[in-house]
Amino acid sequence: MAPILLNCAGKEDEDYIKPQLHVKNPHLDSMEEDILYHFSLGTKTHNLPEMFGDVKFVCVGGSGNRMRAFAKFMHQELGLPGNTDEITDICEGTDRFSMYKVGPVLSISHGMGVPSISIMLHEMIKLLHHAGCHDVNLFRLGTSGGIGISPGTVVITDKAVDCFFRPQFEQVILGKVVIRSTELDADLAKELSQYASEMPELPTFIGNTMCTSDFYEGQGRLDGALCSFSTEEKVEYLRKAYNAGVRNIEMESTVFAAMCHMCNLKAAVVCVTLLNRFDGDQISTPHEVLTEYQQRPQNLVAQFIKKRLGLIV
Ligand code: R2B
Ligand code: URA
């Protein structure tokens, strides 16, 4: 069956106005060539509209291997022709990020932390712009530490908050602090949550996600090489986070939300929790269990994509 491409609202509608991607950089227009250095792609060396013009879903996650596995999984889920071994890394000219395309789905790794994902997002958003893409949905599929919820729970982010529980992302630009909103697309989160409720094997929660710039002390862990606080202080901070609606902690959501919001891209953050931070800091769950947990955000987003493409009802 040929996939029907539906608009952002999931409807076939000729009068529908396509949401436009806003790349907010006036300097780009005067550049003769744009080299997307960390992707090893460029506007003169590659035909970006031909390579990427049909992209409708961009899924990003920390690890290159996980994003290759996701691309292979989506290839099967979409019933695309050909062998999954033929899915190759579009960014093979660099080992900074990995990128795989299967039909309208682009799967890209972003590494760990705000600086790494921010570089990837600048180049990915310019890539979509140069390729003339519109009506694109973006998903971060990640792992996280849970607060007060069972390991293996998938958290769909309501608000991405900083370590003071504020829904904002602060960036220093030319020596000044610039504050950007981390608003995510509420409809996308609601739609994901609706599909999750139809998947009983997928425990899901909508909650706030706290983004930190460190995995250890920055997330209140007692098991790093350094620790400057007591167990009681750790628990008090996590409790404050819980009371502020935070249900998981990771390291990329605020900049992801802020950049997508500024560029008018509909975006959602879907992370599985690997542990409950009230029970400890070390991730001691067996590898096979962690692998199954990491498949959960992928299953939910695959369901979303198949529904949007009209492959399932
Ligand atoms: C989740 O997991 C990584 C740290 O282990 C980090 O990238 C994140 O956000
Ligand atoms: N990723 C994080 O950032 N924190 C965790 O506790 C687990 C995964």
In the CATH scheme, what's the topology name? Answer: Rossmann fold
* The CATH homology group name: Nucleoside phosphorylase domain
Tell me the radius of gyration: 19 Å
The whole-number mean of residue pLDDT values reads 95
Order of helices and strands: EEHEHEEHEEEEHEHEHEH
Approximately how much helix is present in the residues?
Answer: 25-40%
Order of strands, main sheet, comes to 6-11-10-7-12
Bound molecules: 1,4-anhydro-D-erythro-pent-1-enitol, uracil
* End-to-end CA span: 14 Å
Shape: globular
**Structure annotation, total helices:** 7
Q: What is the makeup of the main sheet?
A: 5 strands, mixed, barrel
Provide keyphrases for this structure.
313 residues; alpha/beta; Rossmann fold; 7 helices; binds 1,4-anhydro-D-erythro-pent-1-enitol; binds uracil
Outline the secondary-structure elements:
Layout: E1 35-36, E2 41-42, H1 48-52, E3 57-61, H2 64-77, E4 99-102, E5 105-109, H3 114-131, E6 137-146, E7 154-161, E8 168-173, E9 176-181, H4 186-197, E10 204-211, H5 231-243, E11 246-250, H6 253-262, E12 266-276, H7 287-308
Parallel strand pairs: 3-5, 3-6, 6-12, 7-10, 10-11
Antiparallel strand pairs: 1-2, 4-5, 6-11, 7-12, 8-9
